Amino acid sequence: MKQSPYRREKKALNAEMNVVPYIDVMLVLLVIFMVTAPMLITGVDVDLPKEQTNTMSQSQLPVIVSLTGNGEIFISYESNVDLPVSEPELINTLSNLQTQNSDAGASPVQVMINADQNNQYGAIMTLMATLQQAGIQKVGLLTGAPLPTPSL
């Protein structure tokens, strides 16, 4: 008797696990991690504050540059307190202070930025770029004390 072409052949069941798709998925994930890992390392070099800080002597008082919410710049140094300045005046003032300190053999000028919390990120970065143009190497950011949380 002739076998029907529509008849199914019975094959033995293959109980082994096919690992080829898993290997493919792992290789794709490896490539993704290799490509994205260098992107995670890039960033701005930030000098984070330490647990303990050194106390500053009276001759090392920092220059405080204040940036208001509407973009006005004020500078406080030595006996001058909150003088309104423009960006070119700020560069000139800081450059002069920097040269005075280097001539006197003192440490470099320390600058602290006192910015309003409502300032745009771009405005603060522009101010930091201006400080860099004036030759300032290290800049600190001032913060206020956190408000106490109410207890229930």
From TrEMBL:
Sorted alphabetically, the keyword list is:
Cell cycle, Cell division, Cell inner membrane, Cell membrane, Membrane, Protein transport, Transmembrane, Transmembrane helix, Transport
Any one GO biological process: cell division
Give the membrane topology, semicolon-separated if more than one.
Answer: Single-pass membrane protein; Single-pass type II membrane protein
Question: Per its UniProt record, what InterPro entries does this chain match?
Answer: ExbD, Tol-Pal_TolR
- Transmembrane regions listed in the UniProt entry: 21-41
Q: Which GO terms describe its molecular function?
A: transmembrane transporter activity
- Cell location: Cell membrane
Please give the GO cellular component terms listed in this UniProt entry: plasma membrane
According to the UniProt entry, the coiled-coil residues are none
Q: Do you know which NCBIfam families this protein is assigned to?
A: tolR (TIGR02801)
Q: What is this protein called?
A: Cell division and transport-associated protein TolR
